[in-house]
Amino acid sequence: MSTLRNKVQLIGNLGNDPEIITLDSGKTLAKFSMATNESYKNANGEKITDTQWHYVVAWGKTAEIAQKYLSKGKEIAVEGKLNSRHYETKEGNKRYITEIVCSELLLLSK
Question: What domains are there in the chain, each with its CATH number?
Fold first, then answer.
């Protein structure tokens, strides 16, 4: 059970093409968003679809795979961990971000 402490698994569709950044150190970073959908029926029996957006970052070989094979709309599965961070804008406002640091990526679209 100790390996389940911070683990996320999602299946969804890419909301955008991955943004690829090559750092000065030579490391590759891929950033993209993905949507997951959950459907249920409300009290009136109407089908409701709830869409949640998730921000994903991938490093190294995983980022290179994302760069080569991912594009907007493709269905993927990701596994990774949650990471929360914050930064300060130029105006001095604090911004908080929660993202998934992807360790495994599976292409589900044809």
Answer: 2-107 (2.40.50.140)
